[in-house]
Amino acid sequence: MSNPQQPPPPPPGGQPVYGQGYPAPPPRKRKIWPWVLLGVIVLFFGGCVAIFSTTAHEVSKSEDKRTSAAAAGSEVRDGKFAFIVTSVDPAVAALGDNEILRKTAQGEYVVVHVDITNTGDKAQSYFGDNQKLIDDQGKQYSNDTAAELAVNTSLTAEINPGNKLSVSIPFDVPKGTIPAAIELHDSAFSGGARVALK
Predict the structure, then answer these.
(1) pLDDT for 104-120, tens place per residue?
(2) What's the CA gap between 167 and 33, in Å, rounded?
(3) What is the third-level CATH fold of 70-196?
(4) Is 104 helix (H, G, I), strand (E, B) or coil?
């Protein structure tokens, strides 16, 4: 007598009779990890694209701000400093009345006169070396530190809150250069503010 709890043995052909066969195998488990990994990769690249597009937009806005120049005589601000370009001297071959400090240009000197006011709430150092001259071709020139001693009392100055300093910033440029703008900075890493010179 066969046990009712056990399925009958398969017939001689090896195939169970329909309805009396072995229980169906359990359904195959789908692997989830490839889908999770794919989702993480999509989110990662989507996030990178969003970050890069935002950064590119900010850089573009910053570049627009830097390339648009204020008129000479108007106040521009960068960081804790407010700048006003008061005048630009005609180009000269040498600077300084003192024989020891007199400096001769490789090309010619363009000197830009600027008033700087500290708009912050603590002292801030001004460095002439942070300022840049841009010509009408878009070329950028750094100031001549040695020539600065011939036209200013010092290369750097600490400006207290609310105080104003008037400086002359000399640039050694090739003869015939047409200065188009000056880019003024309160520090070496600031965004800068442009003022048109022509």
Answers:
(1) 999 999 999 999 999 99
(2) 66
(3) Immunoglobulin-like (2.60.40)
(4) strand
